[in-house]
Inverse folding.
């Protein structure tokens, strides 16, 4: 009997790939009849100028153009990786995107692209200094005299290209421009890294912990070997969403940035805040001020003062949030979970364990790509941002059940929930939720309480994020500047993660 070529091709695939294809086939067949019951929407051709917008509703061709890749690449990538398929410069790539209709011309973004072009040209000629890998071994005498001293190589400032610190309101395209710059770096630059700043700091803390452990009872300076290793890994660093909210991070950054820059590292940073506004009102902020001055001295600090917020483009909502916690909604969300986990070759496992920082995280129900938690499992116990990132790294789709309405007495739960939502957003997770009240109202005060006055700062943040009074005005739980911003940003992200475009493009692993 002659076996059809298509069958031979399928059998030639590795088992893991055949399983993945089978998994997706089962999911599509089951989900099609249950999830996201929305009528077909015909979209007109849209032009996107922010990173969030560019990740939604794009054709493979637009995706390829944006990330500087050949058009036949159709896999979704949340962040660009590697050198472009062609030798286009940032400004050439930007004009190409505008001409193709993937972006629309924006004078403010053009101004930033010109600055990135300057940095690109400087990097073409830049030869970074060699990073020595000094051993921790040596005589007791040498260790005694070297203890507590810095061995960081210092490169003359006039030989190192000046980095770019780009700040501005959300949705103005900062991340999109940085990603465009990263994807068009000269091909000879292999030591490069593009990372969300939150993930970067988790990595730094892990490296410092390992350095202290290696030093043992002798002690010493753990920042120096960490800076040296980071400089050895990459001499071009692109940080997205730079912010400082923790005193431990503030104290580390003051030393780490100085040493990285002395190693000749070149950085592009995006942030919602001017350096002078970083860690504002933080504990021992005076100790962090030298880091602020360093940023202003060694970076070109510029704002993206665009009049357009590209995140405020209307989106068709998808049915991914269910309230209240009724028997009907429980039954519906369970049907969807079973549809997502219907592949017999990838059965649901109970109490799967993940490990991070030596701690075990129990996942109550999960397949290899889909996990289900109850709110108390994730936010009712002491869990960190590293724990949530480990979860979102492993599962592209997460079901979160029984989210309660939270008041002042549940502030710790609210903070963990915000951290979890940030991790889901950063990892492009598809999130399905059941909640006691509409998900945007879980932080609301008791309606019988006296109306809470909205502060000027809160009004400014709400305007930046395009949020209405109905979404956030009733919450008095959050007071400090950083808390207010994190809370309002969480509401904004929940709105976006509930969109049809997000539901259709998120969850890819």
């Amino acid at each position: 009997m002659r076996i059809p070529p298509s069958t031979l091709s399928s059998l030639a695939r590795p088992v893991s790939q055949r399983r993945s294809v089978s998994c997706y086939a089962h999911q599509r067949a089951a989900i099609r009849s249950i999830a996201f019951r929305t009528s077909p929407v015909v979209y007109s051709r849209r032009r996107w100028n922010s990173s969030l917008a560019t990740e939604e509703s794009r054709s493979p061709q637009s995706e390829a153009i944006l990330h500087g890749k050949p058009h036949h690449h159709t896999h979704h990538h949340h962040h660009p990786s590697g050198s472009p398929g062609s030798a286009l410069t940032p400004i050439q790539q930007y004009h190409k995107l505008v001409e193709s209709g993937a972006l629309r011309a924006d004078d403010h973004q053009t101004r930033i692209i010109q600055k990135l072009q300057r940095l690109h040209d400087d990097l073409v000629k830049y030869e970074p200094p060699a990073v020595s890998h000094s051993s921790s071994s040596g005589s007791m005498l040498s260790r005694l005299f070297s203890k507590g001293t810095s061995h960081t190589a210092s490169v003359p400032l006039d030989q190192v290209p000046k980095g770019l610190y780009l700040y501005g309101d959300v949705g103005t395209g900062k991340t999109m421009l940085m990603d465009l710059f990263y994807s068009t770096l000269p091909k000879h630059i292999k030591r490069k890294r593009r990372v969300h700043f939150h993930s970067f700091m988790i990595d730094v803390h892990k490296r410092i912990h390992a350095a202290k452990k290696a030093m043992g009872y002798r002690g010493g300076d753990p920042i120096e070997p960490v800076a040296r290793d980071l400089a050895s890994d990459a001499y071009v660093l692109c940080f997205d969403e730079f912010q400082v909210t923790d005193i431990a991070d503030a104290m580390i950054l003051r030393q780490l940035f100085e040493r990285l820059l002395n190693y000749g590292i070149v950085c592009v940073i995006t942030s919602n805040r001017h350096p002078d506004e970083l860690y504002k009102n933080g504990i021992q902020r005076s100790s962090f001020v030298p880091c602020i001055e360093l940023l202003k001295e060694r970076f070109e600090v510029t704002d993206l003062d665009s009049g357009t917020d590209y995140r405020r483009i209307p989106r068709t909502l998808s049915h991914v949030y269910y309230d209240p916690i009724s028997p009907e909604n429980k039954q519906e969300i369970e049907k969807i979970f079973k549809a997502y986990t219907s592949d017999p070759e990838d059965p649901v496992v109970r109490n799967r364990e993940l490990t991070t920082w030596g701690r075990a995280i129990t996942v109550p129900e999960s397949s290899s790509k889909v996990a289900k938690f109850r709110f108390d499992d994730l936010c009712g116990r002491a869990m960190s941002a590293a724990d949530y990132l480990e979860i979102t790294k492993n599962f592209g789709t997460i079901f979160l059940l029984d989210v309660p309405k939270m008041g002042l007495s549940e502030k710790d739960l609210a903070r963990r929930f915000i951290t979890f939502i940030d991790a889901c957003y950063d990892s492009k997770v598809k999130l399905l939720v059941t909640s006691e009240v509409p998900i945007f109202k879980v932080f609301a005060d008791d309606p019988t309480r006296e109306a809470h006055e909205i502060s000027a700062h809160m009004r400014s943040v709400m305007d930046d994020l395009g949020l209405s009074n109905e979404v956030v005005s009733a919450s008095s739980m959050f007071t400090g500047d950083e808390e207010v911003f994190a809370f309002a940003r969480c509401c904004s992200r929940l709105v976006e993660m509930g969109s049809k475009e997000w539901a259709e493009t998120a969850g890819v692993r």
Residues 1-46, 51-86, 135-150, 447-454 have pLDDT under 50 and may be disordered.
